[in-house]
# Entry
Amino acid sequence: MLKNFGDALKSAFRRVVNAPFIDKNIVKEVTKDVQRALIMGDVNVSLVLEVSKKIEKRALEEKPLPGMSNREHVLKILYEELASILGKGKELPLKKQTIMMVGLYGQGKTTTCGKVARYFQKRGMKVALIAADVHRPAAYEQLSQIASVINVPVYGNGKKAENVVKEGLKNFSRYDVIIIDTAGRHALEQSLIKEMKNIAKIAKPDEKILVIDASVGQQAGKQAKAFDEGIGITGVILTKMDGTAKGGGALSAVAETGAPIIYIGTGEHVGDLEKFDASKFLSRLLGMGDLETLMEKAREAVEGKEKKVEETAKKMLSGKFSLVDMYEQMEMLSGMGPLHKIVDLLPFGGKMKDEDVYKTQEKLKKYKVIMDSMTKEELENPSIIRASRIKRIARGSGTESRDVKELLRHYHASKKMMKNLSNKKMQRKLMQQFKIS
Ligand SMILES: Nc1nc2c(ncn2[C@@H]2O[C@H](COP(=O)(O)OP(=O)(O)OP(=O)(O)O)[C@@H](O)[C@H]2O)c(=O)[nH]1
Ligand SMILES: [Mg+2]
# Structure
């Protein structure tokens, strides 16, 4: 399921990249993709609506940054709005405090206690650990073992978690940072939930950190909600990010609790703790390689087309006008790609209405098939195309002779109009636009 969540988000990005041009409909479809993905990821429905509305509004109303295409602009907005769900992250302040770790079984709570202890210790603070997991055999020994590596004291080995915490806090009252390791629990186990609430009441921890394994996936949202309702989560640490899991569930956990991700665990050792970086996380979730290639592809497509605009403009000025040029011109008129930039400058300028765009695109498809059956010579100099060639081209392209004739008629009409371009004022405008000297 996690895979689906990440894939669903990815498909939203793909749709932007693969769209022939970015218009209102594409933005609407992409917004729907994002909604579907987030709902699949168990993100709270009202948040899903809020975020997707914002994506749609920004994509339709904001102007792209200079030098950025519409496509890149929409990708950027998608990226930013998803990152905003994750928030800016948070750092634990370097002050006297009590921290309580909670989470499901085997998520990495005990290991993370050691890592966070090491984090404060390295910054010159006096740290102590309390082993409040009285349920799992050898939980105390495990924490002691980790503590001995970093030379930090541990209190524990009791029978009742509440008492261990009470005594531990008394014992370590002169320490700067006290970290409480608790038992792994299932959100539905009432007795353990009660114990967790009791510990929170006794210790009044400054931080109540939910430890989640990166592979948990979309269940993370539900679990996080249960812990949040129990004691009020103040932060999340995402463990095992060194594995193959991408941590998509964290998005739901954060969205559900509103608590930021503080650190990520990247290994089994006490030093394997990193500050959380939302954009890095998102890149990984969506597949950074993918996203980078997608962005690059978008850029290349735009750059390639921009070069063509310049070439087309040059050709128009030189008075040469082939079938290929006509095809490109129709492409611009239908608003496909940045070629439409010069539409306003054309003698018959102005953009098309939606239904005309559709018709033009249908025509373009047909023309393309016909032109594929022409020789290079015919494309460059269509006036040589007479009856026998028309028959051959129609047969080769699986169309009728009248289709080929229609294409030729369209060509001659366009060519005639292009003659108007010899108009000096028009030339100057075009030259300014493309800096052709
Ligand atoms: N690769 C990797 N392994 C981790 C990480 N964090 C924890 N582990 C491993 O995950 C396993 C479980 O970790 P624990 O710290 O015992 O988890 P826990 O939440 O305390 O488990 P319970 O107390 O049984 O609920 C151990 O084998 C850890 O070494 C991490 O960031 N990366
Ligand atoms: Mg443990």
About this structure: The CA atoms of residues 32 and 387 lie 51 Å apart. Residues 336-350 have pLDDT under 50 and may be disordered.
